[in-house]
## 1
Amino acid sequence: MSSRLPDFVDPWRMADLGKVFSGCAAIVDLPRLAEAVSDAEGEVELRLVFDRDRGKRASITGFVKADLVLECQRCLSPMSVSVESQLNIALIRSAEEAERLPEHYDPLLLDEPRIRLLDIVEDELLLSLPQVPRHKTGECCSDLNQEAEPPPADLEASGKRPNPFAILAELKQK
């Protein structure tokens, strides 16, 4: 087990050796994720296990998780979101291999002999982000969640409401 992540690894060799990488990575070291969040402070916890399955396929299992600050799309205020993803990745060299994979695997097509571990971590977290982040009902400070005020009682009783387009009539006359 390693707490310091190497920048690049040979995934085929790591699978043969049964290497395990675990530890933390700073969100600022994940540029695409840092751009997608409101605050790039904090860390990502991860565990990546390289191995071979019964069919001799090289695979990566494990998890990535982080507490991220996203912008609520309802009120545009920052909000904290816990994101966690379980990895079950099969390393493949061709699209034909991907078609033959069991359904429980996500394919990772490798066209180079080495991979950057943080790219795998970053991809998993980006795929785990909510499509439209927003506070839970009742927690959002947006006016959209507030009930509209009922019209004054005197307007309802008289049945007369002011015409919202009356101002346009005045402008037209000028």
Note: The CA atoms of residues 43 and 121 lie 12 Å apart.
## 2
Amino acid sequence: MRKLRTLFLLIGLTPMLAIGSDSPAEKPSPTDVIEMLKAGNARFVAGETNHPNTDAARLALAGSSNQGNYAYATVLSCSDSRVPVERIFDAGVMDIFVIRIAGNVADVDQLGSIEYGVNHVHTPVTLVLGHTQCGAVAAVTAAVKGAELKLERNIPPLVDNIIPAVERTLDDLSDADEAEQVARAVEENVWQSIRDMLYESPALREAHKTGKTMIVGAIYDIATGQVNWLPNERVDVLLAEVEADSDRPMNPYGDDN
């Protein structure tokens, strides 16, 4: 296993670190980064975007510098074409380390990417960004309610992380119409991804606890462009629940066995 990890580092991570130093540059505080993201989204909603860091000089800088000296947020978002992450925050090249996956789920591939963003790109904020009218959440909601969906073989295991969020939603909103259920499930799914991050990744758990990164959640409204931020107190509630679970993984660098 150690040889495999060493090989992975050599062939997978080293090229990403080859340019510049892996030592973190001084970054804005997590609170300042969130204000930057909010300000960028406000410009986007108002139609007053600046399109920063997209000129030839920035591209040349990207070709000669380490992204870890510049990127200020890691964002886990949905693959949906209606959620163009950099645009909705009026951000540019080397500003945001983005992981996109249907349903913004936090499974092993996404967790590894987020760990890289936090511990090697040194992003002060880690955002899980859900969005209204999420097709993945809607499909899982329909399936949990008994609909027979004909899905290609790789889709069900992709979105099965969403099931707990949908089940909690249906327990709370059993009599609501499906649109309301899906809207609530979208939010619950953000919390589920954050919980999965905190449970499955000791590295991310420690980074959040020590203030290396601040894990936050938000919902993007595809009809208005507005990002609505979720109460961050629940992240600490989820962290406490995870830390009370004696079965949680503890070794950030490999199997606990």
Note: Confidence is low (pLDDT under 50) at residues 6-22.
## 3
Amino acid sequence: MLLHLYSGLRCSVFAVALWGAAAGGGMGGVFAQTDTVPAAVSGEVPLAGAGPDWPAEALLARELDARRALELGLPSIAAALYQELLQDKRVAGNASAGNRVRLALATALLEEDRVEEAGRALEGFSGEPVPEYFLRRALVEARARQFDRARASAEAIAPEGLPEADRPWLFFLRGLVAEAARDFNQAGAFYQQAEEASVTAAQRSWFVLARARARLFMGGVDERMLASLRQTLDRNPRSPSGRLAASQLAIALNAAGRGDAAAELLQGQLNLLPREERQAGDEWRLLLGLIAGPGSGEGRAALRALLADSADRDKQRAALRLLAGAADTTARREDLENFLDGLIVAPARHPIMEELLLFRAQFALAARRFVDAENDAGRVLASFPGSSARVPALGLLTASAWEQGRFRNAASQAVAALSEMPDGPARAQLGVLVAEAWFRARDYRNAADAYGAALGAVPAGVPAGALMFQRVQAEILAGGRLDAAEQLLDAQARDERFDEANRWRAEWNLARALQAAGEVARAYARVSRLLEEKPPGGTDGEEGLIAEFAGDSPADLRARLAWLRARLAFESGDYARALELASALRGALDGVPEPLRAEIASTTMLLEVQAGSALGDARRTEEAQVLLKKLRVDFPRSDAAVYSHLIEADLAAARGDIVGAQNALRALADNFKDSPYAPYALYQAALYAERRGQEQYYKEAYDLLEDIVLNFKDSGLVYYARLRQGNLLRLMNKYGAAQTLYEDLVNTHRYPGFADGLTAELALADCYAAQAATDASKAESAAAIYERLLDQQSAPADLRVEAGYKFGLNLVSRAELQRVETVWWPMINSFLLDDAGAGALGANGRYWMSRTLIKLGESLERQAKFDQAREVYELVLRKGLPYATLARERIHRAGPARP
């Protein structure tokens, strides 16, 4: 994007061009500036969007979604999300973030029993392996029956070296290794330890499921074993030993590759099992679901029966996980949702009701049925106040709000989740997301506080410097807090975590914010101080700046700030210093990479043209003209070369050469039709044509504006071009055509959807008023609009005062003199005598207020109320309004005040 430099558009044409390589998307850290012309003319443009080299907030939100799915017991969904994250170059290119996601992906794949894929995911791990990596590697080895290697890892990993959520996995691994060694007592103790160390019920249910899966692949099998188990079952079908033999025979048949026979055996045993034998029935249904598979009819039926009626909560959770994992198509998901609906609405509360609600909410969220998802998550919070399901429910609400762009609500839900979460990686990540949500909600003060809190526990893969940059940016955008932003930036500069790139980006944004706030001298002093700091091992002053372009400070950042210093010197009126700085900078760009070097060189040449022309002497002016031609030759398609036509037009107009100014603007519009400056050049050319004050030039101006309307339909200037055309039609006494044009604008650009829409209504009223001499109804139409605009509380103060002044004149023209004072005096009281109202008035409002006072004074004089007239005129002087000379004359005419 591009920024306008000067003239009617006061911000720099080059700020985004010079920062473009860093803009990148980043964390949303942008600073927007509006100009002194309508927003549609200048645009509201980001000045320095930062692009920290870490995953953006949308990726962080997606990672939290994946973590929540994994914690809920939806590893297939989690795996898909983690795989998607690894496809993003911002994650894959960040070693810390990439490793974190790969470990989580391996976890999800292990829970899905997709062991080979888990191994491949771990192969992408870079850098020095950590205990979490060795643990997952060992689990893959155990599943591949490489028990010796798995045993070595299991013995080498210390539980205290792992995150709390990983420790149960280590105990489970040790159980697998012990079972492979036929040490069943030791294995049972480790399995029990894994279940007891589980941090959530969902994790515990996974170990129940994983232990059942392990039984299906552990140990060997032969025909003698099968015959022995069959004999035991036949002899004692209803005894505990017979029940155990049935389970072992089914496992052995499956291990021998006869899964159909195993499923048939279990189904037969279930058909014969008395209802009171629930423990055996639960085990067989879980085995049947695993052997037949949750996607098969009999496997699905067994797991649904287990979920619907079991005394074992963990097996019910395991059944729910398996059923959810198999719901991999829309039809299967809808079928499972219908089944869950029946369990949820049953008269008796289901034993794992909170999990049922959370799974259904997750399905609804995935289908973007946000209301359903939020209803179920809200029900969990309301009905299960002490449940561990509260944090995932709050996570669901956070995700739902985020997906809908309701960032303030997302921040509130995430803050509630933080208050219930223990310290750890998930909490640290969510802390950053809270800050990002506040930032996106444009609640910058809360965002700044949240970034500060996030710096207390920075997540792996998130550079602290990026958070520090965002914290400064939030302070800048908070409004009226530039002092706080400056103090914070100075304090953070002493923190070794604040890397140079992010620090200098923050300096750029702060300087631009100070510049936009009119504190050019302060911005200039800060940037100068920063650039004159002696870098480590560098030299002093301007020589040091040039020598250190390729030193500790990245050359592009230092060069951008050097350009900004020269620009600020120009804006502060120190043209000689600006010229000196710009000339030095242009000769010191060897260390700056392309295309930034060309962008800085071209923009600096244009700055030299401006500074040389502003100095005013003949030699400098001639040198500026030579440099202007060189700019267009050396960088013919650059933004600076394009914008140089606007500068040339300004310089010509300053000399009184209106034709020359128009020619420069036409050259821009004709030769750079794709430039965003082209419609602005046409608009400015139309203004110059109008200034020539004859009907032929009014027609010329109209045609130039029509070019904008027809050929730049997406330009923000179209509305203003049409509005200006209406004014030109009135100047040519074509009131009917003007009225039609204004009415069309009023209908197509309605306030408040279009912020400046009321200007067309005011122009329409002016058009009606101009026709009132020949049509009395027009005066009434004008009065209705003026009165409504004056009374519209949300309208800009300047526009309301202008409408109020014209409403009073309208009343005078219709001989409603008594109403005039009742209209004007309340307006004077609200927008002049009241401090808050007076503070809302801009230059335009003060102009119309002064005209109101002058007219009111005249009215009072005609009524021989000279003392009151004098008081009104004196308000012009006391409030420093325009027309002070005229007010003094009227005071003198009214004579001395009566005693």
Note: The chain is about 70% helix and 0% strand.
## 4
Amino acid sequence: MKQFVALEELKYTGEQLRSSFAHTTYNIPGDSIVAFCGPCDVKKEYMVDLEDLQKGARIYSESMLHFIVEHHDTDLERAILRQLVLTNIVMDMLNRQPKPLQVRRIHTDLYDGDAKLTVSVATVTPLSSLIHFGINIESSNTPVKSRGLADYKIDPYDFARLVVKEYASEIDRLNEVRCKVRWVD
């Protein structure tokens, strides 16, 4: 599982949620988790969540920390389970801050009280499974009540490095566990 944190900003429009994004953008082939900061404004033609599309929801943030995960399998259920792993990693890291937070998970979204911190979606292509997970850095001008990393005085790049390392480690551990059991009759 390759990991990378980009230092240059990139606007997330939804177009980045595609097979080989890490390979074509950062020269990172294979299974990967990449992180970058930048605005978020998902265009309707790239909206993956059908509920959001039907509601006419706007996915927008002036500044967000984005994670794009790609695994080269096409099992949507596995992608959703990996999305939950990533969500739980982020929640645990937020709740372990020096000034402990009380972030809670509702499905694949994270909240502090009634303020939403994240957006997330998992999908598949004919080539791979994909996850976009974004956490607000700034919370102003979002379409819903929100909080962001700046509200907690958390550096997004330091946080990104911790998350990508932990996600890659967790996936490696899952693969090790899968390989150390024997089958039963």
Note: The CA atoms of residues 92 and 121 lie 19 Å apart.
